[in-house]
Structures
1.
Amino acid sequence: DMAIGGIAHIMMVDDEDDYHLIIRLMLRKAGYAGKLTAFLSPDEALDHLRGEHERPDLLLVDINMPATSGFEFLEDCERDTLLSCQDTTVVMCSSSNRPIDMEKARALPCVCDYVEKPLSVEEFERIANDHARRAGA
């Protein structure tokens, strides 16, 4: 099975090119062979979700992006019902470990986790296991 923990499609929204590469390498190391849809801009990600009927199993969202923050991006998703919390595990990622961000992230209904960058193989596996448990529930 290519999917890890039932995760066959990962969507990533992060304005740093380098981080996209880091995530790709980490996923390869984790043995993930599913689909990765990566966006540098939250607006592009929103357009994609609006036009796409297949929802990602895992959504990795950077909190600190220049034009639209990760929080605003998720608010837009929620407003336009572009995500189903049942089907998509949302993980917010940040390089700055600010407690206020953590609290804000964990308070959002769809957010399952808050991780500090870079996302490690171990954390990815833990997230995938959580996803599998929730999907099976």
2.
Amino acid sequence: YMGKRRDNTWLKAFFLARIVARRPAPPVERWAEHHVERTLATGLRPGAVAEIARLRASGVRLVLASASPDVYVPILARRLGFDDVICTHAQRGADGRWTGVLEGGNCIGEEKLRRVALTLGAMSAELA
């Protein structure tokens, strides 16, 4: 990846395959909660939480679009008060364990734009 011979999708799949694949959900979910706590404490831009709260209070429907995996993004979105989440999906098997495979592709670039457009279209249809 660092030598530019692999892309972000490869790196994400590599991470999922090595870190979460075949692991039961509870320990991964505990790690995800810890990661979100750390992100909320030190990983957000100054003023971000206040701006999100301001927008939420104004009645705006908040959609978090991230290329990061759903191992932790939905937790972060919920903690920040987002209404909808668009992110990369990590496949889970019938037993609830992650398989290490990206489901539906990496939510980055054009794929992220496509998913945002689909979500906005669905939101518009709800209002009609």
